[in-house]
Every structure is written in C-alpha cells, then in structure tokens.
Amino acid sequence: MRPHCSGQQEIPRRCRRAGLQRRRTGHRGLRLNILGAILAGGQSRRFGSDKAHARYNGFRLIDLVYDHLSVQCDAIVVCGREEEGFECVSDLPEAGLGPLGGLNAALSHAAANGFTHVLSAGCDVPNLPPDLADTLSGESAAIVQSQPVIGLWPVAVGGSLAEFLEDGGRSLYGFAERIEARQIAFDPPLLNVNSPDDLPD
Question: Cα–Cα distance between 46 and 89 in angstroms, integer?
C-alpha cells in the first residue's frame, strides 16, 4: 500500500513508501507488519483552529507525526477526517466517538489488509521517537502512560474494541484496562500540543 500523493508543495515527502528503513520484529522475534494511524477526528475546540495544520518549527503537526511514524510503519492512514495527500479512513461505526472511533477504523482497515498491528498517535505529538514501536512491543497491547492515544495495538483486539463501543464505552483508558494493555512511561514525557501556547514562538 502506498499513501496517495497530491503533488502539492505542502506535502512533497508524502510520495515515498513508509516503513522501508528496516524490517521489524516484535516480542519473541515475530515479524510485525504495522499500520500507522493518525487519529485526527477531533474538533480542536480548545485549540481554536485546525490543530493538525498548526505549525511547529515551521512544519504542520500532521506532517511531523506522519514523518515520525513513516520510519517505523509499513503504511499510514489518517482516521476521522479527509486530508488531501493522505490515505484516509472514516471513524467506525460513526463519527463523534472520540479517538476510539478512529482506532476502531484503523484496526478494521489493518485486519482487512494483512497488518499485524496498529501504531496510533494523535496529530498533536511532534516528537514521536523513531523507536516507538520497538519500545511498545510486547505480548499485549501497550499505551504511553498519560497519553493513551499513542499505542501499539495487535489487530486481534479489534473485536474487543467493537464490542466495547457497542456497549457504550468511549474511554481509551477504559478500553486499555479491559484488554489489559501495558502502560509505558517516557521520561521526559512526549510533547502534547493542546493550545497555541504550546507551540514554539
């Protein structure tokens, strides 16, 4: 799978294949085929404008997240919005379910296309480490402590998430607890751009 390329100057690097830097193996040496998922369905009400297009050191946040995911994923989708130059999927089963709707869409897309895992992140973390997938890999799903949107999810948890949403669940922490996901701490914590004040001058 390749990202859709628009040819616009804003996103020239989108035309390269993601994840070609090195083959990844996870716990017990199993081959990981990772779908990167940028969960971008939020309304950015607290931010006051489209957060995904806010600039951090001159680059759009969504482009920075894509670039950081691309070195460790085999393909990338944007969940919950239409974004020119990216492959996009709609939240499932419908919009308005928060990040779990985007994660559910990513897991469904991953299962249908032969991926083993989904590496998820919001569009507001400009300093994702290049070894994030390796750090989170293990026997079960894992999330970043205090930032549960960032996680590595085996495709096998997709059925559990669909049931969780059907039962009215909307909390990422609640779902992570249900499937006994591990919480991994980063020191210092990863950045999280919540307001324009969090952007460099």
Answer: 24
Looking at this protein, which amino acid is placed at residue 149? V
The 8-class DSSP code of residue 123 comes to: S
At position 119, the amino acid (one-letter code) is L
Q: Which residue has the tokens 């290049």?
A: 130
pLDDT tens profile 8-63: 233 334 433 343 334 455 555 567 999 999 999 765 556 656 889 999 999 999 99
Burial class (CB in 10 A: 0-12, 13-18, 19+), 171: middle
Which tens digits make up the pLDDT trace of 109-150? 999 999 999 999 999 999 999 999 999 999 999 999 999 999
Q: Helix (H, G, I), strand (E, B), or coil: what is residue 149? A: strand
Q: Are 56 and 126 in contact (CB under 8 A)?
A: yes
Distances (CA, A) of 167 to 41, 149, 162, 164, 170: 21, 20, 9, 5, 9
Q: Which residues pair with 55 in a beta bridge?
A: 60
pTM summary value? 0.85
